[in-house]
Structure formats: C-alpha cells, structure tokens
Amino acid sequence: MAPTGDDDHYRPKDAIAAGVNGALVTGGAGLFAAAIQNSLQKRNVGAWGIFTRGGATIATFTAVGGVYEFSHRAAANLRAKDDHYNNAIGGFLAGSILGVRYCLAGRIPGVLGWGALTAVILSVYEYTGGSLKGFAKDPNVDEYERKEMLRQSRRRPIKETLAEVGEGRSIRPPGYEERRRQRLKETYGIDIHTVSADANV
C-alpha cells in the first residue's frame, strides 16, 4: 500500500503467528508440488518419494513462506509503519532463501540477486495497491450510481466517434445509405436504387 501518512495509529501484529501460518500454507503448497513431481517420475518410486525426493522442495516452500511472513510483520512492528518497505524487507529475506543453492555452490551474488528480485516485485506490488484487480471500490458508493458516473464521464458523442472511426463496417449513422449511394456514383458511376423488403414502404 502506498504511503498514506496514517502512521500514528499503528497496531503491532503477531509476527510469530503470521510466520507459522505462512510456513504452514506454503509448506502445504510445497507438499503439493512435491507430490506432482513424484507422480511425474518415469519409474515407480512409491508414496514416500514425496518426502525423500521432494523434501528439498517442501523445505524451501515452507522456509520462504515462514520467513516472508515473519520478517514482513516484524519489520512493520519495529518500524511502527505498515507500508511497502516491509514487503521489500520480507521479500529480500524470502528471496535469499530461494538463492541458497547458489550459496552452497559458492556464489553469493545469486543469493543477493534472488533477494533483490523478490524484494522489488513484492514492494512494487504492494506500493501499487496490492491487488491484481485494481483499486478497492468505495463501500459507501452504490454500484449502480458508480457505473452511471463512469458512463457519463467516459461517454463520447456519436458524431465525434464517427469522425474518428468513419462509416461502414456495420457503423451506419442516419443518412448513411444516401452518402454511400452518392460515393458509389461519384467513384464508379453506378447509380444504386435501394429496394426495401417491407411491402408497405
């Protein structure tokens, strides 16, 4: 969430509970991912293969979720502010866990790169509203009135639209047939007489 200035009323959050909850949720996702990896093995490895072969996947998922949630809330508590910098701190620490395999190979820039990447992604996501569906709607405004206001503010006159788009292609404003007949006569020298399917005309 973008900085709002309402930092005077910060209420501390339970970082340990959030970390445990995050670890459980992402650990479950890691277990699911390990089960999928196990089921896609070419040879039968058995059900315990989820833990023997996918243990690293489960542990990584669990650690990333737990560290992110804990450090995000702990940073907010220490700073007494709830803003996008907390997401950057949590994202950096969680992303660093994703880069641990580079650290084991003796390459520290991989750890820093993964940390920086996730920090930037999570902080920008939070700064721009924290939603993929756009900004939250005002609960005090009626939905019908809001849509009518949007229609009125974005509605353009038909003459302006026709001037930009032009006629034809199923766009037939009043007088279109006469103008079309005149253009065909000027261009090709053909005089077209329209016939109505209505017998009363």
From TrEMBL:
Q: Which residues form a coiled coil?
A: none
> Ribosomal protein: is it a keyword of this entry?
no
One GO BP annotation is: mitochondrial electron transport, NADH to ubiquinone
**GO CC term, one of those recorded:** mitochondrial inner membrane
Topological category with respect to the lipid bilayer: Multi-pass membrane protein
Fetch the InterPro entries from UniProt. NDUFA11 (IPR039205)
Q: Which domain of life is it from?
A: Eukaryota
What keywords are annotated for this sequence in UniProt?
Answer: Membrane, Mitochondrion, Mitochondrion inner membrane, Transmembrane, Transmembrane helix
What main location does UniProt list?
Answer: mitochondrion
Q: Transmembrane region positions?
A: 15-36, 48-68, 88-104, 111-128
Keyword Kinase included in the entry's annotation: no
Q: Where in the cell is it found?
A: Mitochondrion inner membrane
Checking PANTHER family in the record gives: NADH DEHYDROGENASE [UBIQUINONE] 1 ALPHA SUBCOMPLEX SUBUNIT 11 (PTHR21382:SF1), NADH-UBIQUINONE OXIDOREDUCTASE SUBUNIT (PTHR21382)
Tell me the protein's name: NADH-ubiquinone oxidoreductase 213 kDa subunit
Source species of the chain: Lasiosphaeria miniovina
